[in-house]
């Protein structure tokens, strides 16, 4: 099978992760945590996951200069993602995400966007016509619109974090991906167009719609949960990859659900991202 070509336009962060027994409530200090540093950012997570799942991947983003840039790009570089579209920003630092994770794997995340917010439509230079373009909302919406106007077989947007977007984006995107909170934020607006909408439901699995009508459903897989960071990003790129490969919608949704399930079984966003062989073996065990 020919590798799909996927271009990801999105954020690059360095994740600073504190893992504790419980998450703090407002005004509370929780001690006794362990600390780890990982590459992250929704865009970078999705680019790396797509690469590990079998795509040829190009990344378009902005980072600052210095050691945080090197650390944030380390796994993308090691796994062969094309980084020629990443612009160095001398005025801002590389984005940073402050992440707290509890013993059940639930998390709280605060992002300092840094150079991500300086990405411009002029930076979005997409060569040729890739099989798919995948975006998120951790970079300016104007950049997502620029990507939408480039040629590709499939244009997908993960509407996260939820924020107001032009109606044009909701109507013309081939695939929108949302979780329950994001679906509530956008309401029926996500079903305005003729494209597909993937809704993730946590422990209840995932549903795929077209023009507001359900076309596929996949149950959740039961796995030990270590850290949910990056699971949604894994789902997004796995679904895009499977659709770009021409898989039937139900099969593609099941593949994405399996990949995201494996992502929660290890700590960290990018270190937990599964390889295609792992997903294949996992699905064989479920049959």
UniProtKB/TrEMBL annotation:
Coiled coil: none
Major place of residence: cytoplasm
All copies of domain Carbohydrate kinase PfkB, residue ranges: 5-275
Positions that bind K(+): 227, 229, 263, 266, 268, 272
Assembly and interaction partners: Homodimer.
Binding-site positions, substrate: 13-15, 41-45, 138, 233
Originating organism: Henriciella marina
Function: Catalyzes the phosphorylation of ribose at O-5 in a reaction requiring ATP and magnesium. The resulting D-ribose-5-phosphate can then be used either for sythesis of nucleotides, histidine, and tryptophan, or as a component of the pentose phosphate pathway.
Cofactor: Mg(2+)
Family: Belongs to the carbohydrate kinase PfkB family. Ribokinase subfamily.
Name this protein carries in UniProt: Ribokinase
Keyword set includes Metal-binding: yes
Binding-site list for ATP: 179, 200-205, 232-233
Catalytic residues as annotated in Swiss-Prot or TrEMBL: 233
Assigned EC number: 2.7.1.15
SUPFAM superfamilies membership: Ribokinase-like
Swiss-Prot/TrEMBL keywords: ATP-binding, Carbohydrate metabolism, Cytoplasm, Kinase, Magnesium, Metal-binding, Nucleotide-binding, Potassium, Transferase
Pfam families: PfkB
Cofactor descriptive note: Requires a divalent cation, most likely magnesium in vivo, as an electrophilic catalyst to aid phosphoryl group transfer. It is the chelate of the metal and the nucleotide that is the actual substrate.
Pathway of action: Carbohydrate metabolism; D-ribose degradation; D-ribose 5-phosphate from beta-D-ribopyranose: step 2/2
Catalyses which reaction(s): D-ribose + ATP = D-ribose 5-phosphate + ADP + H(+)
Cellular localization per UniProt: Cytoplasm
EC class: transferase
